Fold:
Amino acid sequence: MIQRVQTRTQLRKIKDLKNNIRLDVRNTVRSIQANQKRIEVLTKNLQRANENLRLAKLSYEKGIKSSIEVLDAQDDLLSVNNSYVNSLLALKTLEFDLQVKVGSLHIPKSVKENAKKWIKFN
Structure:
């Protein structure tokens, strides 16, 4: 009787662990998909920011805009570029995490913890 209860308890724990792993993998996949969409949007924003900077420079050369407007366009481009790079890093990290979670790649915990200290995302 006691063994049967212990067996059921262990089976329930195994089932819970499997469900938690599935949930964790599913959430990581969703995060990857969301990040890929963010990168698509940021790619378009990067093109727009480059074009805005080009137009601001032309307008400045023709005396239509001030140098401050060119600097603002440069700041916008830098900001979008930073977001783009951070999103690319986040995507690669999520893809890496997914490989670890599904067991296709094993990384020692100490290595992962050290890496997290050096990589920070906005």
